[in-house]
Write a structure and sequence with these properties.
globular; 0% helix; five-stranded mixed sheet; Immunoglobulin-like; mainly beta
C-alpha cells in the first residue's frame, strides 16, 4: 500500500485528518451544497445566539463524517458561545463562516458539535471531550490578515473519533489567468492493495501522480471537462478508462478545490470554487 503525502497545512487538533483517495468501480461525484447558517441568519454572518465576535477569519467546513451533521460554535468577546454554522451535513462543504479569533492566540478557534447539541455550561465549554463526534479546532498560522481556509473533518480510529486538517487558501500559489486551475486535496491513500494514484483530464496526459507535500495548482483548459482518477499500479499512464470521474466546469482564471475521498472501494469527489477575498 502506498501513501500520499499531506497537501494541507497547519492546524491544532488531537490528530491528523485525511483528504482521501481510493480505487474501485462505481464513480461518484458530490457537489458542494453547504449547510445552513445560524438561527435566523445565513452562515458567515456570525450566529444569532448573542454577543459580538470581534475579529474573524473566513473558514468553511467539509464534512466527511458519515454518521453526523455538525453545528459550529465560536466564542464572542466575552467568551460566551455563538453558533456560527448549522447542520453541516455529510458530504457537503459549508459556506464560509465568520470564525472569531482566540483572544489570547489571535488564531481562529471553533468547536464542532453534533447538530442540535449546545455547548456545555461553564468556562471550559470550548474544550469538549476529544472523542466521538466533537472536536475543537484552532487554526495555527491563520489570523486577521491571512484569513481564509477550508477545514475538513473525517472519522479516525475506526469511526470512533473525529479529526481535522486545514487548507490555508490565503497562501495558495496563484494559478494561470488564462487557464482553469485545480487544487487537489487528499492525504492518506488508505485502500488495501498496492494502489498508485494518478489524476488527469480524461483523454489527456496525467496531471498528478505523486504529492509534493505543499499546496500546488494544476492548470488545464477552461470550460467543461471530466476529471478522472487512475491507478498506475495496473496501467502505465492515464489514457485508459478511469476508475472514477467527476464533471467540472471551471472558467479561465478560476480555481476549483477538488477533495478526493472514498467509501469502501468507491472513489468520491467534493468540489467548490476557491475565491480568496482581500
Amino acid at each position: 500500500m502506498r501513501h500520499l503525502n499531506l497537501r494541507v497545512r497547519g492546524i491544532v487538533v488531537s490528530a491528523a485528518i485525511v483528504w482521501s483517495a481510493g480505487c474501485g468501480g462505481g464513480a461518484t461525484s458530490t457537489n458542494a451544497n453547504g449547510g445552513a447558517g445560524g438561527r435566523g441568519a445565513p452562515a458567515g454572518t456570525g450566529g444569532t445566539s448573542g454577543g459580538q465576535l470581534g475579529a474573524t477569519a473566513r473558514v468553511r467546513v467539509v464534512n466527511l463524517v458519515k454518521r453526523v451533521s455538525f453545528d459550529a460554535w465560536g466564542a464572542d468577546t466575552k467568551s460566551n458561545p455563538v453558533r456560527l454554522g448549522q447542520n453541516i451535513a455529510y458530504e457537503t462543504i459549508s459556506p464560509y463562516l465568520d470564525v472569531p479569533l482566540n483572544q489570547f492566540t489571535m488564531e481562529p478557534t471553533f468547536v464542532l458539535l453534533p447538530s442540535g447539541e449546545a455547548p456545555a455550561a461553564g468556562a471550559s465549554w470550548m474544550v469538549p471531550p476529544v472523542a466521538g463526534d466533537r472536536t475543537r479546532i484552532q487554526l495555527t498560522g491563520l489570523g486577521a490578515t491571512r484569513n481564509q481556509a477550508t477545514v475538513i473533518v473525517k472519522d479516525v480510529d475506526n469511526g470512533t473519533n473525529v479529526s481535522a486538517e486545514t487548507l490555508e487558501e490565503s497562501k495558495l500559489v496563484a494559478g494561470s489567468a488564462s487557464k482553469a486551475n485545480l487544487h487537489f486535496s487528499y492525504n492518506i491513500f488508505d485502500l488495501g492493495g498496492p494502489v498508485v494514484p494518478a489524476f488527469a483530464v480524461v483523454g489527456q496526459p496525467c496531471l498528478l501522480t505523486e504529492s509534493a507535500g505543499v499546496p500546488e495548482v494544476f492548470s488545464v483548459d477552461p470550460g467543461s471537462f471530466t476529471l478522472g482518477f487512475f491507478d498506475l499500479e495496473t496501467v502505465s499512464d492515464c489514457t485508459t478508462t478511469p476508475l472514477s470521474t467527476v464533471d467540472l466546469t471551471v472558467a479561465a482564471g478560476a480555481t476549483e478545490l477538488v477533495a478526493i475521498y472514498h467509501e469502501a472501494s468507491v472513489v468520491k469527489f467534493l468540489h467548490a470554487p476557491i475565491v480568496v477575498t482581500p
